[in-house]
Amino acid sequence: MPAQNLTCTIIQQSLVWQQPAANRDQFARLIAEQAVGSDLVVLPEMFTAGFSMDVRTVAEPETGATLEWMAQIARQSGAVITGSYAVLVAGVPVNRLVWMRPDGSYATYAKRHLFRMAGELERYRAGKDKLLVELKGWRVCPMICYDLRFPVWCRNQGDYDLLIFVANWPAARADHWSALLKARAIENLACVVGVNRVGVDGKGYDYSGDSIILDARGRPLAEPGSTAGVFTATLDGAELDDYRRAFPAHLDADRFTIE
Question: Which pLDDT does position 95 carry in this prediction?
Fold first, then answer.
């Protein structure tokens, strides 16, 4: 159980369509100027290019420019940096989240649920395994966008304290995004961070942001709405522990396995 507080920064921005260098420069500036002192900085899904299915244009080698950039920014800021981008794994495109630590070590998560309505299912390979990482005593489970709709995959089986979703979630379904994030916090007795983008992408889809940081009761700690910017909140480890002791619904949860 987390004993320490965790300072989390979320960055909600418009993305430059299929221009990784421009997006990296934008996020580097914002992190250097507005994320000082954070333990964790969360970027959107496909933060280098937008939600592009043009894998020949946007997918990078596993040890390419964005991985090097994340290592540099994590080292300079002293924070874990996380977000997803398109990566070629053994020549196959994957929507991969990277959890980059300040010491240069990292872990990865491949998006399990691929958004078939946009053709992601045909262009990227799905992952099979959850990622569980630790930061300042917090057990963290990062996921990607469409994963949010699948509560069995997201279910806390006593293995995490913070659930993260990085996304490119269109404005047309913004109410679903907000409702599901709150539900995931309440049902899992865990803090939840959801980071979405704003603006219009190269396909003409509009994004309203609605990023949020929630405590385990589903109450917002940071809620920027549709405003682009950098937003920070501190997650209280002692408060989470106290809440779970006072309302231990997790002790009555069903046991199951995921195929």
Answer: 98
